[in-house]
Amino acid sequence: EFLSSSITQLKVVQTKYMYVPGKLSDVERVLIDVGTGYYVEKTADDAREFFKRKIDFLTKQMEKIQPALQEKHAMKQAVVEMMSQKIQQLTALGAAQGATTKA
């Protein structure tokens, strides 16, 4: 669940860096949010580079987490299947012992 949540959060953060239509009073300098409530004034080109690096970083983090998530999911499925088999065996054993006791 933690890994699934992490990937979801990374995807949400990644989509925050998409462009939206708007008008700027100064097209040479922009104010960008660099995180935790801090804003920095940068040139438009520097801002583009900053967001490109940020998106690349987030994409790489998602690519790193995805295989671990798939592995954990496969392990969970194996455990669920094994538990289901054990429950069926115990149920069948209990039914067989109950039939033997009644006979």
TrEMBL record:
GO terms for molecular function: unfolded protein binding. This is Prefoldin subunit 5. One of its GO terms (cellular component) is cytoplasm. InterPro entries: PFD_alpha_archaea, Prefoldin, Prefoldin_subunit_alpha. CDD domains: Prefoldin_5. It comes from Phasianus colchicus. GO terms for biological process: protein folding; RNA polymerase I assembly; RNA polymerase II core complex assembly; RNA polymerase III assembly. Belongs to the prefoldin subunit alpha family. The lineage of its organism: Eukaryota, Metazoa, Chordata, Craniata, Vertebrata.
